[in-house]
Specification:
It is built from five helices and nine strands. The protein has helices spanning about 35-45, 55, 60-65, 80-90, 100-110; strands spanning about 5-15, 20, 50-55, 70-75, 95, 110-120, 130-135, 145-150, 155-160. The chain is globular.
């Protein structure tokens, strides 16, 4: 049975067809460059605990993020249920920040209270890639979409179960 955790959240940026990245990532791992959305991510996660899968952690500036947030890298040696239990007792939000396998794991094992989804607008340039990765359809997990705010380059939604 899935466990619902009040302070467990997810955050992701995708295209309108749920594209979230590539298995063959380059640079920072993103297929787009949207400073406005990166600022949104920073605003939402500042001062909280962030969980990254080991592959995703190779492409994000972990050392920079650690200056203002607690960062945990999830590899196969991490006892995730024990880590979540520890973090659940802290007075911080726990943000699942990707990648694909990490999102999938948490959707199958837990019920995050909120999932922040930034959906890029059509005018944003998306780099070509092979081995594309798509974010799971949240409706299939019982989540409902609510509009939060429209920005110049993306729409910010929150999904709740």
């Amino acid at each position: 049975m899935k466990k619902k955790i009040k302070n467990l959240k997810m955050i992701v940026c995708i295209t309108k067809d749920n594209l979230m990245g590539s298995k063959n990532a380059m640079g920072n791992g993103l297929l787009w460059d949207v400073k406005e959305e990166l600022n949104y991510f920073k605003e939402k996660t500042m001062g909280h605990s962030l969980l990254f899968g080991v592959n995703t952690s190779k492409y994000v500036p972990i050392d920079k993020i650690r200056k203002t947030r607690d960062v945990y890298i999830l590899d196969y040696s991490v006892d995730v249920p024990k880590l979540i239990e520890k973090l659940e007792g802290e007075n911080k939000e726990i943000f699942i920040c990707g990648g694909y396998n990490t999102y999938k794991y948490f959707l199958e094992k837990y019920i995050p209270s909120e999932i922040y989804v930034s959906i890029l607008k059509d005018h944003v340039l998306i780099k070509e890639s092979e081995n594309k990765l798509y974010f799971p359809k949240l409706e299939e997990y019982g989540y409902k979409k609510e509009m939060i705010k429209e920005y110049d380059d993306f729409y910010a939604y929150v999904y709740k179960n």
